Amino acid sequence: MSFFRKDTPPAEDLANLKVTDARTGDVISISGVGENFKDLDFTADRTTRYQAGARHWFEVAGPYMERRVALRVSGDEEVEVHLHADPRKVSLEDLGVAEEDLAEMDQRQNTADSFQFENKVWLYRLSREMQAFRDDQAQPTGYYYWEFQEQDGKSLIAIRKPEGEPFAVTLYDGIPAGDVTIYRPAAR
């Protein structure tokens, strides 16, 4: 009789989804980081997977209070979670960094390089070519990418430079993975 039996995969445990399970269509709830310290809840309408050399991470993004937010998840063994929810548009000039400074840091690849922004020191973490694979686009997008981490903190600044386009600066706050709850609609 086993000849006719179909092996079915185990049912997904929707009650115990981890932040690393997040994907498009999920409702993401992050404790206490929304307006007035309420939970920040959004429905992920896009997933983007990034690869920069041997490093890889993904982001789920969606609308929250008339703006877009993104939850960034990285790390294989030790998971790092960051949230981009800052509504400000930040430029290189706001950071006090010039294109030449970024080029020099890229050439040196020295993790002791840094700059100051908002009374914090931001340490160079990496720079290299990056590929972004969005779930709603057939082809990946290429960028040049710089990443800085807050000294003695968990926040990140990511700078992307698509060819022929201006620099894009994204501010991320580090958050505990345990503060994120993933809700997935049951398949019908």
Outline of the structure:
This protein is mainly beta.
Description:
With 188 residues, this protein is mainly β. It has one domain. Helices cover 7% and strands 45% of the residues. The protein contains 2 helices and 12 strands. It has an 8-stranded antiparallel beta barrel with strand order 3-4-5-6-11-10-9-8. The protein has a 3-stranded antiparallel sheet with strand order 2-1-12, with no helix packed on it. Strand 7 and strand 8 form a beta hairpin. The protein is globular and about 55 Å long. The relative contact order is 0.20. The model has no long low-confidence stretch (mean pLDDT 91).
Main sheet specs:
8 strands, antiparallel, barrel
Radius of gyration: 19 Å
Number of domains: 1
Shape descriptor: globular
Task: Give the number of DSSP strands.
Answer: 12
Number of helical segments with 4 or more residues: 2
Binned strand content? over 45%
DSSP helix fraction: under 10%
Q: Which keywords apply here?
A:
188 residues; mainly beta; eight-stranded antiparallel beta barrel; 7% helix
